[in-house]
Amino acid sequence: MSNEDINSKIVKNKIRNLKLNIFKYIRNNSNIRIFFSVFTLLIILLLGFILPKSAMADSEKSNINYFYVTVINNALPMIKCSSKESPSAINVNSINSPTLSFFGIDMINPISIIVTEIAYLDKDKVSADVNNASNAERNSNEFSINPFDLGDNQVIKSVAKVNDSNVISAIYNPALKGTLNKAKPRVLIYHSHTSEAYAISDKDTSKTNSSSDQTRNVCAVGDVLASDLEKNYGISVIHDKAVNDKPDYTKAYKNSSVTLDKYLKTYEKFDLIIDLHRDSVEDKNAVTSKINGANVAQFSFVVTDKNPKYAKQKKLINSMIGVSNKLYPGLLRSQPIITYHWGIGFYSQNKSDNAMLIEVGTYTNTVSEVKNTAQYLSRIIAEQLNGKK
User: Fold this and answer.
1) Which phi and psi (to 5°) does residue 130 adopt?
2) What are the Cα distances from residue 158, in Å, to 22, 155, 161, 177, 298?
């Protein structure tokens, strides 16, 4: 035996002994046995996952639309339940089922899936004959967009108009008339925005929202209100027409605050203090009602709920709202109270328990409409001051 054969035999013996030692080590060590068992199982699972996918990828012909089938099976369970074939067996023929045709789906043409789900796309413009088309032709399929058109029966039409319901109610209540005492005025009317104007008539299209002409601005409303309160109800009124919003509109409330302080210093208190305004709604029909056959501008209150006298003011306003709703339904706006926290210096409402800001109509209301409102508002005030004991 040559030295080479002897060395080869020695190496083989060493390898055999090493294997035996390793086997004995694994057999005697439980942790090593568990590791090798888990490792072997993972290898088997990995091979079991990779090999079928590779086979599926190689059979492109039988699985050309497997992706789309999966999508539809997830989105439409009805289709999945109707097919008893395994995913790997699904081909072009098996997915062209009556169920898919019912839904207007052509699996060869994925655009049809999108068109089916999005009605805004025109399915009639999608080419259905793609079985004989080349790949280039398939990629060039075009679809158009349906024009968006709602039928008349699909649209709720709402046209703003003057409230057609005609409330019949007496403007005056003679039982409320008291004795006029000019030395002790009970109501103070002033205007922070003195120049807020109204339309002269229905034919006035100028939409003038500011004017120094006191026959067409908020002073005209104050004149009717003051006159009716004194003449019909014996309630003495001071109507201050000082212009507070010119030349600097931003200082209007500061200027009117000085006016209010002057009267409070002189007379100490009033039963009612009204800062009379108008709103800026463009469509007057939204704030116009009909009472006794004539159009009247609706009115509302503006309050500041952080001012220290708010609680008493709110109680007074709620009482007036109750009177208005009872006598003249629809005269108040749908939102009768507009609430701010601070306003501009509380709109001076922190100076008296009986201070309030009232808005009558809007700049597109006519002067006659807001004067009509003033007549009804005078009775509401009279009911509050003379009628409630």
Assistant:
1) -110, -5
2) 91, 9, 9, 44, 20
- Locate tokens 């996918």: which residue? 53
Q: Give pLDDT, residue 165.
A: 74
Q: For the stretch 144-179, what's the b/e string if a residue is b when 16 or more beta carbons lie within 10 angstroms of its beta carbon?
A: eeeeeeeeeeeeeeeeeeebeeebeeeebeeebeee
Q: Dump pLDDT digits (tens) for 264-312.
A: 999 999 999 999 999 999 999 999 999 999 999 999 999 999 999 999 9
